[in-house]
Amino acid sequence: MAVRRVVPNIRSEAVGESREFYGLLGFEEVMNHGWIMTLGSASTPAAQVSVMTEDRTAPVVPDLSVEVDDVDAAYEAMLQRGAEIIHPLTDEEWGVRRFFVRDPNGRVVNVLAHR
């Protein structure tokens, strides 16, 4: 299994202000679903940060997202380890397959792959 990118997720009600702040560091809006906005670097597209007011289909806002090439294998590995699954493996309407798992530090990780 290969990691494609890692994106920190910031829970915030200051979405516009966050866009302006991170824009000063060279980030541009690359996705906006209303409840989640992702900002990325034009020169390094995998360098991203997401700002979220909520998670539309999951019970919590994850602390970070890890995009992998095989989300099903990642899910099975976490189940075999006995990890705490916060949000089950789900095909989301916006084109990702994902699940949430709690890491040893108590952080919630959104593990995903694009379909």
Brief write-up:
The protein is of the alpha+beta class and 115 residues long.
Topology, pairings included?
Blueprint: E1 3-11, H1 15-23, E2 27-32, E3 36-41, E4 48-52, E5 64-68, H2 71-81, E6 85-91, E7 96-102, E8 108-114
Parallel strand pairs: 1-4, 5-8
Antiparallel strand pairs: 1-5, 2-3, 3-4, 6-7, 7-8
Report on the structure:
This is Glyoxalase-like domain-containing protein. It comes from Streptoalloteichus tenebrarius (strain ATCC 17920 / DSM 40477 / JCM 4838 / CBS 697.72 / NBRC 16177 / NCIMB 11028 / NRRL B-12390 / A12253. 1 / ISP 5477) (Streptomyces tenebrarius). Residues 2-114 form the VOC domain. With 115 residues, this protein is α+β, with helices and mostly antiparallel strands. 17% of the residues lie in helices and 45% in strands. It contains 2 helices and 8 strands. The chain has helices at residues 15-23, 71-81, and strands at 3-11, 27-32, 36-41, 48-52, 64-68, 85-91, 96-102, 108-114. β3 and β4 form a beta hairpin.
Tell me roughly what share of residues is in helical segments: 10-25%
Total domains? 1
Q: CATH superfamily, please?
A: 2,3-Dihydroxybiphenyl 1,2-Dioxygenase, domain 1
Number of helices: 2
Principal-axes shape call: globular
Radius of gyration from CA coordinates = 14 Å
| Structure class | alpha+beta
Biggest sheet architecture: 8 strands, mixed
Main-sheet strand order equals 2-3-4-1-5-8-7-6
Got a strand count?
Answer: 8
CATH architecture: Roll
Top-tier CATH class: Alpha Beta
CATH fold-type name: 2,3-Dihydroxybiphenyl 1,2-Dioxygenase, domain 1
First-last Cα distance? 16 Å
Order of helices and strands: EHEEEEHEEE
Uncertain ranges: none
Mean pLDDT: 96
Binned strand content: over 45%
